[in-house]
Structures are given as C-alpha cells and as structure tokens.
Amino acid sequence: MIVVIRPGTPRAQIDEVIAEVQKLGYDPRPIFGTEQTVIAAIGDERTHHTLESLTVMPQVERVLPVQKKHKLVSRESHPANSTVNVDGVVIGGEKFCVMAGPCSVESEEQLMTTAEAVKAAGATILRGGAYKPRTSPYEFQGLGKDGLALLAKAKERTGLKIITELLSENHVEHVAEVADIFQIGARNAQNFQLIIAAAKTGKPVMLKRGLSERIDEWLLAGEYLLAHGNANLMFCERGIRTFETYTRNTLDLAAVAIVKKESHLPIIVDPSQGCGRADLVRMMCRGAVALGADGLLIEVHPNPAEALSDGQQQIDFAGFGKLMAELKPFLAAAGRTL
Amino acid sequence: MIVVIRPGTPRAQIDEVIAEVQKLGYDPRPIFGTEQTVIAAIGDERTHHTLESLTVMPQVERVLPVQKKHKLVSRESHPANSTVNVDGVVIGGEKFCVMAGPCSVESEEQLMTTAEAVKAAGATILRGGAYKPRTSPYEFQGLGKDGLALLAKAKERTGLKIITELLSENHVEHVAEVADIFQIGARNAQNFQLIIAAAKTGKPVMLKRGLSERIDEWLLAGEYLLAHGNANLMFCERGIRTFETYTRNTLDLAAVAIVKKESHLPIIVDPSQGCGRADLVRMMCRGAVALGADGLLIEVHPNPAEALSDGQQQIDFAGFGKLMAELKPFLAAAGRTL
Amino acid sequence: MIVVIRPGTPRAQIDEVIAEVQKLGYDPRPIFGTEQTVIAAIGDERTHHTLESLTVMPQVERVLPVQKKHKLVSRESHPANSTVNVDGVVIGGEKFCVMAGPCSVESEEQLMTTAEAVKAAGATILRGGAYKPRTSPYEFQGLGKDGLALLAKAKERTGLKIITELLSENHVEHVAEVADIFQIGARNAQNFQLIIAAAKTGKPVMLKRGLSERIDEWLLAGEYLLAHGNANLMFCERGIRTFETYTRNTLDLAAVAIVKKESHLPIIVDPSQGCGRADLVRMMCRGAVALGADGLLIEVHPNPAEALSDGQQQIDFAGFGKLMAELKPFLAAAGRTL
Amino acid sequence: MIVVIRPGTPRAQIDEVIAEVQKLGYDPRPIFGTEQTVIAAIGDERTHHTLESLTVMPQVERVLPVQKKHKLVSRESHPANSTVNVDGVVIGGEKFCVMAGPCSVESEEQLMTTAEAVKAAGATILRGGAYKPRTSPYEFQGLGKDGLALLAKAKERTGLKIITELLSENHVEHVAEVADIFQIGARNAQNFQLIIAAAKTGKPVMLKRGLSERIDEWLLAGEYLLAHGNANLMFCERGIRTFETYTRNTLDLAAVAIVKKESHLPIIVDPSQGCGRADLVRMMCRGAVALGADGLLIEVHPNPAEALSDGQQQIDFAGFGKLMAELKPFLAAAGRTL
Q1: What values do phi and psi take at B60, rounded to 5?
Q2: Cα(D132)–Cα(D170) distance, rounded to whole angstroms?
Q3: All partners of chain D with 3 or more CB pairs under 8 angstroms
Q4: Which of A185, B53, B63, D175 has the fewest CB neighbours in a 10 Å radius?
C-alpha cells in the first residue's frame, strides 16, 4: 500500500505514520518527494491488516492499495482458460454454450414446449426459475418444488442440462437434486453465505454480477467459491444499473473482455435481463459473441405477452430460432462453434 | 396501467391490444388522442397480471404503471407516524435515537469501553457486527458466536439495547437471543428469504437500503416484512453507489424526507457507511437531523486506525462526544430531544 | 399526457385538475378506475405546455408524458436509413467508416506518420484534436490554429477527410476551413448554442453522447441540429459514466441498436474514450460492428506512452493494423465492407 | 505518481519503465516489495507529463496519481474562508445568502411580484433565467434580451442583486450589463471556453456542478476561473444524476462539507434543481444549512402550475415565506444569520 502524507506535514508527524505502518505489520519505506511525501508499505496486502484505516490520522491524505485482492480466480494463478464440465457439456472451450428457457417455470406445457423448441434451435442447457426473487411480495414467486419437478421432467425428456436459481441456503439440497448448475442471481451477488453453501456441493455455479457491483468485487465474490473448494465457477454479466431508462439495465459488454483478461474462468452473457427488452436481445447476443463470451443465457417463452414474470424481455420460439440462425456468422468470426 | 400505442397503428391492431388487456383481467378504455392512442386498463395493478409484457407486441410503444405497488408500508395505509418499541426504547417518536458502537466486535475490552463511552455520550442502542459480510474471503469475517456473547455481556453491563447484523437464515435463532434489533445490510437488501425469516421472529428489523436500490424497491422490500406479519420495521439510509469517488457512497439525505412522506415507518441514517470517511460523519449527522431522521447509526471505535474493519469511517470516543454535543441545537431546531 | 390523481381525492379537487388541464390547452378525459383516477390530456405534447407542473397540486400524484419529444431525428419521420456524405465518403450506408488518428495533434511528424499509417490500414477519415477540453487548466490544451494547419496539410497529403473537435462558437469559422466533420464532444453534448452555431454551417456534425445523457436527451440534442436546418448529423456513443472504475467509462453498446431503432441517422462508436484503456479497444471494436454501428472513431498514436493527452487509451500503428485485420470477419458477418 | 508493475515482471522490463519515467521528466525511485514492485516518480505532477500513458506498456499494471490537481481553489493555498462581494452583498461570511426567483423570466408582472415577495421574505439576490438551455428545441427558450431588461427593472425597483445564467461566450457583454453574478449551469459545467470568457469580466461567477461531475473535476473547472485571474467564484451543488427516479437528481449534500474542506471558496445549494420536486425543497434547505452551505438558490413562482419551465420544482410565495420562517432555528444552530 502507498500512504500519501498531506503536503506540509512536519517530520515528527510523518514518523507517527511510519510507526503505525510498522505496528500494523508492514515494512515502511518513506519517499520524500518534491511536493509530497509517500510511505510505501511493503508486505502482502491480502494477508495483512489494511492500511486504509490510517486515513483517520489527520496527516494522512489517502491510502492507495497496490495489489489486486483476488487470487484463485485470477489469470495470474491459472494462465490458461479453465472450463466447467456440466455433466458432459463443457463451458469455456471452443464450443459456445446457449442456455435458454422461460424466466419462470409456469406449467408443464409451457416448460416442455419451450424445452423442445430451444433444443431444436441449438441450446444445450435449459433455464427456468422455480424460486423467483420478486421486487414485490404480491408478485408471482415461482412454483417452488413443483417447478423443480417439472424441470426434472424436462431434463429427462430432452436430455438438456438444467440451470435454475438458488435463493436460499435452505434450498441447497433439494435444488441440487435437479439443477446441473446453480444460478446465483444479481440480488444475491454478495450473499456470501449462499455462495459458501453452494460451494460445498461441488456443483457448477453461475454467479451473476450485482446491480452495482464493480468488476473487482464480482471477482472477489467468485473468489469465495474457489476459496471454499469449488472451482466450477462461471461468471454472468447481466447488466448494471445506471441512469439510463430506455433499458432496464446497461449491459456492460466490456466486462466480458475484462473478465477474460483478469480471470481464467468462463463468462456468460444474459441479454434478457441485461436490457429488459425483447427487441434488443438479438443484437446484444451478437455483441456478446463478438466480445468473446463463452455462452448466452436467453429467456424464451411460448407467449411472452402472457408470461407470469418479465414478459417484456422474453422472446418467442420463432424469434429464438431466428436469433440462433443469425448468430452463426458471428460465432464463426469469433472462432466458436455451437 | 396505461398502454401507449405506437403512432400510426391501424385500428385492427389496436383492437388486438384491447383484447389482450381484457384477457389479462383488466377493463380496457381506449382514448384516441390527436397524436397517439392510449388504452387505460382499469383494475387493481397489485393483484392483476402486469401489462408490461404487452411491450412485446410491436404496436405497443410503452406501458406506464399508475399505482404504487407498496401497500402496508405506505403513508396512505397508516396516516400517522408509527413507532417501533425496542424493549422500552421507542423509535420514531419525539425522542431521537442514537445507535453507536464498533463496526465489528473485536474483543471484550474494545466492546466494553466503547459501550460505556457511547452510553455516556447519549446513545441508547449499541451496534456491533458479530457476522461481517466482507468483500474478500480473506478479510476478517467477524467473531461469530463469540461476538454475540460479548454483545450479550455489554447489554447486561450497560443496559444498552443491541443491534447486530443478520447474515443468514440459519443464524436467526441464535442471533435473536442477543439482538434487540436485526440489522439487514445493504448487500442483503433484496434477500427476501432473509427478510421473511426475520419477519417470523416478530423482532424489530432495521432494513438498510441496497447499494443501487430505488426508493420504491426499498419500500417494497420492507413490504415483505409487513406482509409476513411483522410491523416492527425501520428503514436505514446508508448511501447509494454513484460515480463519485471522494466518498465511498453518496448519502442520499432526500431519501429521509421521501420515506417520511411515502411511509409511516421510522427512518435511521448511517453516515459512517454513507460517506465511508470519518471526517464527514459529524456534518452528515447534522444534515440527517435537519431532514427529519428518527435516529442515527454511528460507528465508534477506541482506536480507529487499528480497527479490524472499516477503520477509515469510524470515529473515536472524543470525536463521538463532540458530535453529540454539537448535535443538540440541530435536534432542538428539528423539535427532537435525545 | 396522463395526470395521475392521488387515491381518495374528492371529486371537487379532481375537477380543479380537469379545469387546469383545459386551461393549459389540452382536452381532458378523466377515467375513473377501481383504485385510482387518471386524466388523459389530449393534445400534441410537443407544442403544448407541459403538464408536469401540475404535480405542485397536492391532489396530483404524478404526470406521465406519452409522446416522444423528438421528431426530425426519429425513425418515424424518415423510415429508411439516412446517410451523411462527407465530401464523397458516405457514412451510414453499406460501407463501414473508420476514423482514426491521434487524440491531440502534437507535431507535424506525429500527425503525418499517423495519417499515413491509418490510411494504409483502411481508415478514410483522420481524427486529431487541435482544441482540447482538458479537465485541468494546467494540462496541454492543444495546438489551436497551428494544429488546424497541420490537419490541413495531412488532408492535402493523404486525401483523408478531417474530423476535429469544435469547442467554441467563436471557432466555427476557422475550424470549418479545415474540418470536414465537426466533432461536438461529450462535455458540450448539451451546449445547444454550439450545436446551433455548427448547424448554420451546413457541415456534417458528429454529436457525442454526454457523460450522463439519457438516449432520449441525446436524440433531442441532435434534434436541435435538424431543427436549425442541418440534417448532416451522426451520433457517437463514447461511453457513459457509471460506478465502475476498471474502465474510464462504460461503453453502452446497446445504445447503438437503440439509436438505429429510434432514429434514421448514422451512429459511430468511440471505443478509445469509451473504455479509456488501450487494451480493450480491439475487442470493443468487434462488439460495435456486431451491434450494427456505422463506423468507429479510434485513437492512434506513434508512441502512446509519450502522448501529450490520453496516452493510456491510444494504440500504436501495429496495434491498429492488427485491429483492422481482425475486424474483417465481423464486418462480413454484419454485412458491411470497408 | 506511483507506477505499479505487474507481478512477476523481469528486471529488464522494470528498467524499461524506469527509463521511461525518467524520460518523461520524473526522478524514478523503484521499491521492490514482497509481492509487487512499484516505482515512485518524484516531481510535480501538475507541471509534468502525466504518467498514466505508461499503462500502455504491458508490464505496467496501473498508475496512481498522488497529488491533487487543483491549486488556487484549494484550502491549502488559502487556509481561511474567502468571501465574494456582490456589490455589497457578501457571500461566504457569517451572513447566509438566499437567492430566489423564477426559473425563467416570463413577464413583467411575474418577475416584479416575485421580486417583491422574495425580498419581503429575506432574499437578497434575485434569480431568473433570460436564456434557458432546454432539453428540446421545441420548449420555451427564454425571453433573451427582453428578459434581461426585466431583470434590470426588477433590480432598480427592489435593490436586489441579480443572478442569471450565461449560456454563450457571445452573450458575455450584454448579460454583464445586468447580472451581478453569472450563473454557469450544469450543462456547461465543463464548457471551459465559457468559464474563461466569464473570468475575463472579473464578475462573480456561480459554477454549478455538472450532472455527473466528480468533486475533483468540479474544483478543477473552478480552477480555470482563478487561473484566468478571477477569484470571485462560488460553487453550487445542484444534484447529480443517479439511478434513482423519485427525484430528478440526487442532491449530494456531502459535497457541501467536502467543498468546504477542500476549498476556501463559498458554496451554495440549489434544492429546486437538486430534487426537481417542490414538495422536497423545504426539507432540503434545512439540510443544506445544517451541512454548512453559505447560501441557497431557490425557484419561486407566483403560480408554479402554469410556469413556462420547470413548474414542478418551483414553490409559490406562501411556500417560500414558510420555508424562510422555518429555516431560522437551523440557521441559528449553524451559527449563521440572514
């Protein structure tokens, strides 16, 4: 860390800071500049006490951390790309992965027809929420265990793998019976207890970015999974909250390139949540492919206008078929295959 | 809801929308304007299917909700201010409530000296984290049950009530043994399962605003508590995430006036998290009082420079004493007493 | 507009609002719902007084505008794509347009070598700032007229068209002598006097999006140009300001698809400003092409480490050559040629 | 500046960076840490080339500036508070300054009655826009010179000083004939040419914060004024743009305390723009006083519901009178007088 001393601080007060840096376990190296003095604090920032608390000393102007805090998820720790094997479907390799299905599981007919349709168009993983985190307590909260049973049935019938949201530490066991991938949603992006509970199962986890989570924080949330012994992690960019109101969220496609650079783990893009508008999904999928994403998570519904949740961002079967067909030249340009 | 039809849409396509509005349970009333047609959909938006899904129809330009979604927390449902009685300490009435204490419980000595100091200066509730949600898995995660035991001891010794963070549904029972108020933190602001679990105890809950939670969403998260039978709710403004980097968060003091206007429930302000800088806490407390807050949550530590978490935003005993003394004329101006 | 009346308002107070709506020039149509009353105000919102001022009446809860405010820039007013002809280089058609060059014009050698290099790699327009809006008055402010003279020389030598920033109404005349396109930067995105001054020349204008400008506001800033008689407008997405600190800005690629949908005018993407990091430029260019952008604005410098402004986001000649080569399959996938 | 070298970089590549630091005019001091190497670059960052461009070298991870860039506006350069004397009305001293009046000058009657009313309630400066920057070209753009003439008349009749917005470099001369203070608005917050033009007159300038301007950037925009010889500067916090939609902007009251700490110059708060809602103005004024603001800028209109611009945020005469009366105990608590 670098401790920046306020200009004009007398030497005795600089020495107080030096002493405090030493007391907190670092080797202090003061550098007396022409305008300002800084103290470089030598030591591993990840294992030592942070020095940011020193800003309460009036002579300290700022403290600048030097090291990145993430370790196991970092590209440095594992220079090659890693892949996640979801019961035979490999994510993060040359093959591009499409996960598709309804926002919420609503009925057997809805789910089965959707599963068949997305499989036919090239998806290998079926998405569908059984437990739904809804902004209002008066909105449809998902079918719960009945929804999970329908997902199990769809899996059996189509061979598609299942991704579904994990909302509660108390659901881990029974959701694990059906899910091939646990989805941890944006609202639980820093629910570390939930991440730790998911880690313990050893199952693949897809960790969505929080609504206003910086990329360094997102990587660190993922670090919780690896630090608790589960390396089957993939990140999912799903848009961040900004001032723009045309879209529900601002899909931060740069995050795809950044996660690829900073981490060895796969990254998926969710354009449905990312924009919150069905009419933008197709174009955003192209962008995600061009930026190097390893897969997509797309909401598909037989009749979006009557969907029980987030109908405005779901596309129908014809739209999904068209999207998949149009994606091919972009996948080829990016060196990926379906 | 108001369904806005795209300009130039032929009548037959407008009729399709009218039919769909009816099918989804509303009474449709088209209004043919000079420039644009809108369909007013008559019905209770809180109990009916949302019509936002109609935007997937190409002739629908936008859907504008009319009603507010929150009910039990709303000022309309309970025109007078409500108060929360924390084992004799009443929050939301004429008496202003100061909650103070360390960010994390670190040791017996740290906690006891702090408890005595904040009590002497006028606080009635002791804060202290036993379970800490930390951005990195390598940071201090709190003393857990040992921390709770120390809080129980401090309560016994000083008579202060205890507020401490609830991080996990699985902690509800043993945290409830010590806590007089459950604090639900910003990262769990929309962890509805946790809110429901807390609701079931009937205990007072202080619900912090999420990092990028709109006020309407925050009110609805509170609605989960009341809808699950627990009306002992207070809100806590603790800053929102913006582009500004001078402060850790932007404390949105307008939210105090807005919550007071939209809801009957008490609101507390946390200037420590709100700014993330000890040097701003004193001034932000004055602002909170002037805006009509019912209380403050302030981080106090015997030696902030050596605190195990968030030292940069904690103030020492002398600073806290000064703050409390200087607050008095502002409390008087706002018609409040300590 | 839709005027939403507060629930429980007595009829006499509703009538007051109706009278006011009429007084302000609209035809009021009240709709008495089961939960709430709304008044639909019939009339052209773009030519009438806005009714948002009615929210000062205590019985008015909200006012919801129905119409979009932009007219001449809208897709409705001109269903086909329009193109901008820059002295023979057509922007917005099948041919994709690459504008490249240094952030600032620094010297003859710097500019000439860059012009030759970007031309060789396929650019048709040379960018280079002669007047630079810099955050601090102590930073390099550009070469001014000397910079313009160098741009004129580079144009003569290479045949590249010139785009350069217009900072001041007082510069219009002499910048117009050299510039083929006026660039209006993010800081002046709502400097309407400058837009009007540029409009009067009839020259093509590239209007960057402001740091926190919503898309509807950006379209309206463009509307100023068309309303003042100049239809040679192209928009430029250059990133918006968010809480994320890894990148300088968050490049909002969805904006490309949205502008294409809402407007008939071309849109350019600036990945250099958009990310503020040279290492991300290549990937963001791919995304821009995939999303349907009509062109790119890329900062290229012979030696970015020693650039006088924004070196961190400029790429060198080799990097630019590689970028252009790698872009080709994506251009082909998007149905565009260089 | 501190140049952070990527972990594991071989010595030869570190030496390249050292050489480049030296070439760019700094004295490089490498510090070889246990985990990472940093190079402290000794030299005045405000007069030297920025080293941020070094991030284009692959071995450089980040560059951390150490010094603050602002100089003349800084508290360090002028430890005491400075005041601005507006033709006898002193801003920044013990006396608190209230500026009030309509958003736009609309008519003689409107302006004169408002001027009398705000004077009677305690305002000493009359605000009123003659030139209005409006989001849409089809909205009321202000009365221009006729508006200025009315402001001159109101000044003559009431003795109030005048503050009005300066929109264009070409307006400086004739606006200066009437205005006692130039207001530079949020949209022109980084229109440095306009700031320089205003500086040259020597007149007091009130510089509003941009919609998404960080405080360090705002201070630097103010630095342009002082660096061009005009020290009659006051800042004006008017809300920043965030994701929150209940209010038009988020009034950042912490900015008041921060500007007071970082700078010696006065700061005014504009709660009308800051919230965009008349019903919040009163409470936000209290907060501004409590935080230590030197004055307020309040929009007052005889009949807000029929105002030609921003009616929703204007208060009427009775509301203004009540606001001023209620403010008194808070002013007393803050040690200020009217």
Answers
A1: -95, 125
A2: 15
A3: A, B, C
A4: B63
Residue among A1, A47, A64, A138 with most chain B CBs within 10 A, to mutate: A138
What is the pLDDT at residue D208? 98
Does pLDDT of D33 surpass 90?
A: no
CB-closest option in A214, A275, A291 to C254: A275
Mean of pLDDT over chain D? 96
Q: How high is the pLDDT of residue B47? A: 81
Task: For residue D67, give the nearest of A35, A40, A241 by CB distance.
Answer: A35
pLDDT in tens, B92-136: 999 999 999 999 999 999 999 999 999 999 999 999 999 999 999
Residue C170 scores a pLDDT above 90: yes
C90 touches chain D (CB under 8 A): no
Q: Is C75's Cβ below 8 Å from some Cβ in A?
A: no
* Same-domain check for residues D214 and D322: yes
Interface test with A, best of C35, C64, C217, C258 (most A CBs within 10 A): C258
3-state secondary structure of A206: strand
Q: Which H or E element spans position C30?
A: strand C27-32
Q: What is the 3-state secondary structure (H, E, C) of B227-294?
A: HCCCCCEEEEECCECCCCCCCCCECCCHHHHHHHHHECCCEEECHHHHHCCHHHHHHHHHHHHHHCCC
Whether D283 sits inside 8 A of B291 (CB atoms) is yes
**Short-list B266, B65, B75, B226, CA closest to A137:** B226
Query: Is residue B194 within 8 Å of residue A190, measured between CB atoms?
Result: no
| pLDDT at residue number D263 | 98
Are A66 and D36 within 8 A, CB to CB?
Answer: yes
What residue of C is the nearest CA neighbor of D70?
C136
- For the domain that residue B10 is a member of, what is the CATH number? 3.30.70.1140
Kindly provide the ipTM of the predicted complex, given to two decimals: 0.96
Summarised one tens digit per residue, pLDDT across range B169-206 is: 999 999 999 999 999 999 999 999 999 999 999 999 99
- What CATH code is carried by the domain that includes residue D247? 3.20.20.70
Chain D CB within 8 Å of residue A58 CB: no
> Are D290 and B292 inside 8 Å of each other by CB?
no
**Domain check: are B16 and B165 in the same one?**
no
pLDDT, residue B93, reads: 96
**Tell me, what's the pLDDT at C135?**
93
- Is the CB of A34 less than 8 angstroms away from the CB of D40? no
Q: Percentage of residues in chain D with pLDDT exceeding 70? A: 100
User: Nearest chain B Cα to D271, which residue?
Assistant: B254
Judging contacts by C-beta atoms under 8 Å, the chain A residues touching residue D40 are 31, 33, 38, 40
Task: Name which of B48, B103, B138 to mutate to probe chain A: the one with the most chain A Cβ atoms within 10 A of its Cβ.
Answer: B138
Task: Judge whether A189 lies within some domain.
Answer: yes
Cross-chain residue pair C66–B34, CB shorter than 8 Å: no
Question: Residue B322's domain spans which residues?
Answer: 84-333
Q: What is the mean pLDDT of residues B54-70?
A: 94
CB contact under 8 A, B46 and A188: no
Shared-domain flag, residues A119 and A60? no
Q: Kindly state whether residues D22 and D117 are assigned to the same domain.
A: no
Q: Which residues from D are below 8 Å from C315, CB to CB?
A: 56
Cα gap D160→D112, rounded to integer Å? 11
Low-confidence stretches of chain A (pLDDT beneath 50): none
C272, amino acid identity: S
Mean pLDDT over D199-221 rounds to 98
Dihedral angle, C-alpha A309, A314, A316, A318, nearest 10 °: -170
What does the pLDDT read at residue A183?
Answer: 98
The alpha helices in D122-236, defined as continuous H runs, are: 145-158, 172-176, 192-201, 215-227
* Burial of residue A235 (number of CB atoms within 10 Å: 0-12, 13-18, 19+): buried
Tell whether C254 and C212 lie within a shared domain.
yes
What is the mean predicted confidence (pLDDT) over C147-174? 98
Q: Do A132 and A168 touch, CB atoms closer than 8 A?
A: no
Tell me the average pLDDT across B299-304: 98
